[in-house]
């Protein structure tokens, strides 16, 4: 089996590729080759199969066709300009998130007799406030960002291309990934990870919102699990509605902090510094808090059920099991 | 006020232009000029303002920019490849309904300091079965046709372009227009109009489905009313959710026939010939039957409340008040 990962240099792509290299198989099928693609050279791990890296820009006509010409059996399309950047640079976001996705989908469509499984990462940003208390599977898409708009368009195209038999698509709306490894970034959502990651590393973290703010989380490990399950699930079981809100964990910032206390003690919690930021508080107020992700759960997608578990996964996967004293 | 109607040669476009010519104004503002556009020359009625016709293909780069260069104050974008054709010719539907709409939106976006009211006709085809008994305003979009997919994408772009201030958009999802004037066509939905139009004209009509089939209707006159209201409504009142399911009338085929009997007697009803067609029955089974269009109603959009009224409008507007004996 030949797997193509478009957007393989991003955090989720990298973790997916590492997992595939470790497993050597996808579901019951041995992997013979993995092609990792991105606009920057993706890192290739040691793997029990052939690996190759490709660098190109999927928004450039022809690039996507070159990528899929060898007919990979499974395509993961994870490439995207993130929310903040797509909002700041409308044309860039449209070019990559909308045109780029369409180029990938059309490149597959135009190969006669080829209909691979294609897994597309969408986002809970397809939803926009006001929301019911828990957003049901049949709630409509009224994104309040260009990123969310572009992802929602990708979902619609994925469904239609699947219905027409151009490929066999599954779109998954990822929760906010927490604890996101790496350096703090300027994303408005950064603090959700920062208030856990920094204290565990002995650093101070800034909390810009009140403890009552609730949000929807899953670990990077769960995200990779979603991708693998989406790549192997029987399409007939999914039916015609091919885009799914992934399960996650709805917790308040206060509950995140209490979980940190359980796992790492008062000393870690004391490293969280409250610096209210009305701008971030305002942005976050428009975000989804909680979903009732019945369909994905019934289809076998699994997320964490406690925030302690999410913190322990970070300690295992990123900190080698050790936390700062 | 200068008005541009893109897709002005279609049935709804033609009726809109006739109404504007008759009124001489849009809301409280006198019309000084109307530009009617289509791929074929649109008919221009006598009007108390300047009129001009333009012929071009909005899917061709540059065509949309040429159309909006004179900065019309209000743009109606009605142009589309219809459902059946967009399904039969995927590339043509994508080119006109998706690229063409994006070209129109982008042409407006790229004019500095220009943010006209832009009214976009979407469709109840953005919805796909299975449905709740009455589809609420917050129900999600899972179109089962490429046409519905392309319209849903237009809605998403319209919302985002409005949010960003590129224009001031309102998207309206039209019910099935009934009674559709003109010759019978091969659309699967054609019989909803045919079983009224043909008997009133003394002709035989074919009914391919059972009388229990329910569908969502509004007259051509109501459709024009929706467009005028969408063009003049205060955007602040609409808020960020810019796409609205228009009100309509949910009636069964049996109720349509009884209304015909009330208006035109048993002789007209006797001209309906039952010829069951399992293919059409199957297609229609996937269509929306009924909506709970609360938002549009509360915003002042008004449709007919009885099917007799819909029939009488056809007799007045298309038959000069006379029905066949």
From TrEMBL, chains A, B:
<dbReference type="InterPro" id="IPR036291">
    <property type="entry name" value="NAD(P)-bd_dom_sf"/>
</dbReference>
<keyword id="KW-0119">Carbohydrate metabolism</keyword>
<keyword id="KW-0521">NADP</keyword>
<dbReference type="InterPro" id="IPR001509">
    <property type="entry name" value="Epimerase_deHydtase"/>
</dbReference>
<feature type="domain" description="NAD-dependent epimerase/dehydratase">
    <location>
        <begin position="3"/>
        <end position="205"/>
    </location>
</feature>
<protein>
    <submittedName>
        <fullName>SDR family oxidoreductase</fullName>
    </submittedName>
</protein>
<dbReference type="Pfam" id="PF01370">
    <property type="entry name" value="Epimerase"/>
</dbReference>
<dbReference type="GO" id="GO:0016491">
    <property type="term" value="F:oxidoreductase activity"/>
</dbReference>
<dbReference type="InterPro" id="IPR050005">
    <property type="entry name" value="DenD"/>
</dbReference>
């Amino acid at each position: 089996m030949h797997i193509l990962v478009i957007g393989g240099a991003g955090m989720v792509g990298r973790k997916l590729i590492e997992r595939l290299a470790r497993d050597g198989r996808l579901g019951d099928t041995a992997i013979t080759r993995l092609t990792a693609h991105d606009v920057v050279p993706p890192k290739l791990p040691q793997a029990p199969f052939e690996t190759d890296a490709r660098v190109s820009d999927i928004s450039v006509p022809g690039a996507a066709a070159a990528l899929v010409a060898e007919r990979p059996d499974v395509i993961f399309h994870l490439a995207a300009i993130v929310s903040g950047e797509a909002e700041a640079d409308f044309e860039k976001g449209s070019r990559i998130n909308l045109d780029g996705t369409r180029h990938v989908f059309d490149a597959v469509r135009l190969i006669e007799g080829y209909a691979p499984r294609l897994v597309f990462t969408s986002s809970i940003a397809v939803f926009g406030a006001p929301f019911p208390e828990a957003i049901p599977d049949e709630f409509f898409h009224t994104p309040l960002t260009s990123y969310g708009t572009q992802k929602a368009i990708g979902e619609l195209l994925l469904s239609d291309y699947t219905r027409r038999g151009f490929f066999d698509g599954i779109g998954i709306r990822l929760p906010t990934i927490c604890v996101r490894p790496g350096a703090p970034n300027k994303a408005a959502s950064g603090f959700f990870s920062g208030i856990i990651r920094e204290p565990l590393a002995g650093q101070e973290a800034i909390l810009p919102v009140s403890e009552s703010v609730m949000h929807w989380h899953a670990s990077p490990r769960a995200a990779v699990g979603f991708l693998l399950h989406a790549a192997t699930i029987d399409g007939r079981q999914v039916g015609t509605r091919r885009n799914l809100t992934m399960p996650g964990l709805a917790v308040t910032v206060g509950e995140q902090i209490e979980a940190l206390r359980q796992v790492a003690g008062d000393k870690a919690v004391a490293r969280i510094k409250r610096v209210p930021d009305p701008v971030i508080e305002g942005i976050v107020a428009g975000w989804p808090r909680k979903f009732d992700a019945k369909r994905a759960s019934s289809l076998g997608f699994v997320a964490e059920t406690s925030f302690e578990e999410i913190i322990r996964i970070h300690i295992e996967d990123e900190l080698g099991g050790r936390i700062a004293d």
